[in-house]
Queue: 4 jobs
Job 1
Amino acid sequence: MQCRSGCGACCTSPSISSPIPGMPNGKAAGEPCIQLLDDYRCAIFNDPSRPKVCSDFTAENYICGNSREEAINILSLLENNTSPKDIDSLKRKHQ
């Protein structure tokens, strides 16, 4: 799958703990990356300063769905279900 033009869900929904140019502490879930342009393209897409986590991400139907809105919902759900708080809660539940 090719990245959907005008989407940028992967630059908004997930948290990123790696430094990003202009965001040395990464970004929180739901916070748009400072490098996300108004047309939802990445300003540093082909730049070597782009974080590895971003360049390693590949668009897949099961993550990106059929629209920007669907991608944001899927990525937000994945983010919420894998947050350290959620994982700690699950560990306590199964002890």
Note: The chain has four helices and no strands.
Job 2
Amino acid sequence: MAGDAHPPVEVLLGLGANLGDPRAQLARAVDALHEFVTGLQASSIYRTEPVGHRDQPDFYNQVVRGTTTLSPGALLDRVLAVEEEMGRRRTFRNAPRVIDIDILAYGDEVIRTERLTVPHPGIAERGFVLHPLAEVAPGWRHPERMQTAREMLSAAALERVEKI
């Protein structure tokens, strides 16, 4: 697509799944991300209680860090395509899912559009993001809060999170 090329930028992506075989789905998603994110580093997998809609299985979550030359919009399009290829169906907010891939950070940019909000809102209050984020990118600094991932994790009151 024209206009998709962008200078290389570090991205942080949050992955989650709680239907089917979540660990296998996380691995499959990471494999698919290799097509457009280079130098991927993946955190451990964390099992977490659901947030929002609580009557569903625990989630398995992970954060990956890497570099892309896609623009923010093109990255979002590719991430959504991976979700769709893996069978993601959007039914209601916080619904169970076979895979969820969120763009947590795109360099140090702050993006607020109808389609994309980066850094992802709620990072500082979500243990299922902060634990794996602090593992894979402890020194990453939130461009608005000016706190590192590790600082946000130590300051937050969070839901149950277990490293697998």
Note: The radius of gyration is 15 Å.
Job 3
Amino acid sequence: MQLNKTALPRIAHLFSKADRYELRLCQSLNDYGSHRAIRLFFKGISRLGDGVFWYSLMLAVIAVQGLPGLKVVGHIAVCGLLCVAVYSQLKNRLVRQRPYISWQHIRAHIAPLDVYSFPSGHTMNAVNFAVLFSIFVPALIWLVVPFAILVALSRVVLGMHYPTDVLVGALLGLCISLGSLALWPEGLFG
């Protein structure tokens, strides 16, 4: 996907408008991070959302289900890699600055994994994984759905994303997971 030179200023202008519109909500959520217990909680959630939580869950599914679990995890892993490819391409082409970079009163409560914020890769993967685990291992829905919501919330509280970054990340993750299930209802390796 190559953006032409006239598209980039329009995109930057749209992000600038959205940034100002979202600033109050973004700042309100980010202010919760000034409370040590809340900040530590969401830092932990965000770090687990880097992959540790999902990879541990994948290993547990394989350990419990054996070969059928390996097939499930294969499908989930392929969709996760697709999420990474999509969000990294979008971030590097759309170049929306993170809130803590654009606004001095938004604090970064954690170090970023990359430079740009749109869309939220953490949220995209969290929603993608939550949907797929919920479909393939329904007993995990009570664990993965609340965790995905907390991951999304953590990204705004920690100053890494605007709410629209998280919303678009969630929608893209949902599209990838549901799209994969539409193509392969029994899983890619089923």
Note: DSSP finds seven helices and no strands in the chain.
Job 4
Amino acid sequence: MADWPYNTGAWRKLRAAKLVAAPLCEHCKARGVLVQANTVDHNTPIAKGGAPFPALEGLTSLCERCHNEKTATHDRGTAKPFARRFKGFDASGNPIDLADEWHRMREK
């Protein structure tokens, strides 16, 4: 953990609370796979205006693979604008990425 807020006691406490509340990777779980979460991700990145210490609902418990996948396809400055943040589908065949166009079309 390199930069603020990740090097603070407040973040360590918030991270621990999220992992207790949601100990499994939320995206693997949506795919029907149970994997222990070891990373806590901001739903809205701080660099894009997200709160550094949001409520637990503003955070997602992820495994390392899912976190790296999301960071590479969505959070970096070179992100692909149409790439899914999270790859895969739930048991019903729906994309697990709630930002996917499929979900927006379904709401209409």
Note: The longest strand covers residues 39-42.
